[in-house]
Amino acid sequence: MTFDRPYAVGLWLLLRMTFVVWCVSVAGLVVNAASAGDDLQIEVTQKGAGKQVVISQGAKEWFMLVDVTPENAVVIRQEKEHDRYLVDESETHDRPMSAAEVDSAILDYVNSVKARSQKK
What we know:
42% helix; elongated; alpha+beta; single chain; 2 helices
């Protein structure tokens, strides 16, 4: 790859380093989620520009979806025990969320479920 301007090389390296850091943070999120104790089963999946997490422990299940479009972001949270929904809420943001914001929201949700499940 050739560069016409001297700053283009620095910009290219900065973009590549940012991508590598983002990939490592996503991998760390999945590893941290997978290492949860107390028989929590945690599954984080990519959904377009957003993500979804499903956490289950026996008959309880927690779900969070962050759906990102170019215009906005929608966050859906659900908690159910057997077939009964204990929590079913959603929120719409008037701007799209960045990848870092999506990762942070998912990680915060996983940590809050871990903390609540350990109290019981």
